[in-house]
Design brief:
The protein is 5% helix and 43% strand. By secondary structure, it is mainly β. The C terminus is likely disordered.
Length: 296
């Protein structure tokens, strides 16, 4: 009730208050009754097409389709612009709230970190600058970044330093990430066979193993993990569910390949693949492509 814009690109919450970022020109909606009723919350929001939203503590952030970033400290009653993508020529991409920081994917290849103490800082000296950042995800102080040409990177100090974590991966071109307290998930694009797959790591990216996802040529638009269940939305308007996706044991991991700097290694063991097939029960759900935000 009251949510008239069908292009919902982002859903976040601050305490018990829900917020929906919409891309059809209606801006941000707010609900205080678990989504039963919605009202607009756009005072100070200059552009009413919101691509991504994130939360840091009680502070709310919204990124518009033209690349500007706004912040609200009072549950969306008032918004203040932090960055103007039209005036600077640098468009901001997806927002990701990790611990007490906000990370933002930049169109030119780097990322931006916003904290309460240091404010907005451009992280242009990262090893993946100009590698094509596709997604940022994390939990606590650990931050993961997927790229087009250099694989996956991890920071254990809130973005101050970075290392590559590609052991066991059969490609270095990645799109989406999802993180829970025990596992990291990454969607991978196999350039040799032109299909998309999902890999999982139980040790913060040190080792990866395929979870036997459907091999499809349609791009994975979104990964989302809830408890031990992983959801993946595909470009063909389907959503696949993987139950018990976190049941990857240490014996499942792929061995390192010391002969190449590229992210390649042997396949998981036959037993590991059999366990992956057994737990890879999939159920097909309906999906609205407009609600599964793209990464351009």
């Amino acid at each position: 009730n009251g949510l008239t814009d069908s292009f919902v690109y982002s859903l976040v919450s601050v305490g018990s208050v829900l917020f929906a970022g919409t891309g059809g020109g209606s801006g941000v909606y707010r609900s205080v009754d678990k989504g039963e009723n919605w009202v607009g919350a756009n005072n100070g929001l200059g552009v009413y097409s919101v691509h991504s939203m994130a939360v840091s503590g009680t502070r709310l952030f919204a990124n518009t389709l033209e690349g500007s970033c706004y912040s609200s400290k009072d549950n969306g009653n008032n918004w203040v612009m932090l960055h103007n993508g039209l005036n600077t020529g640098v468009a901001f991409g997806e927002l990701c709230g990790i611990d007490t920081s906000i990370f933002i994917r930049m169109s030119e290849g780097g990322i931006i970190r916003i904290t309460e103490n240091t404010g907005l800082r451009y992280l242009n000296d990262v090893p993946f600058f100009n590698a094509g950042v596709n997604c940022i995800a994390g939990l606590d102080k650990k931050v993961f970044v997927s790229t087009n040409s250099k694989g996956i990177f991890r920071s254990s100090d809130n973005g101050d330093s970075w290392v590559t974590v590609n052991n066991g991966l059969t490609s270095i071109e990645f799109y989406k990430l999802a993180v829970n307290p025990t596992h990291v998930f990454a969607s991978i694009y196999h350039t040799d066979s032109s299909f998309h797959d999902v890999y999982s790591s139980f040790d913060n990216g040190e080792h990866w193993v395929s979870i036997n996802s459907p091999k499809k040529q349609n791009r994975i638009l979104t990964l989302f993990v809830q408890g031990s269940t992983l959801f993946a939305s595909f470009e063909d308007s389907t959503v696949w569910k993987y139950e018990d996706a976190t049941s990857v044991s240490e014996s499942d991991r792929s061995a390192p390949d010391s002969s190449s700097s590229a992210a390649t290694s042997r396949r998981p063991s036959r037993a590991a693949r059999r366990r992956a097939r057994d737990r890879g029960r999939k159920s097909r759900c309906g999906s609205d492509r407009s609600a599964a935000g793209r990464t351009d």
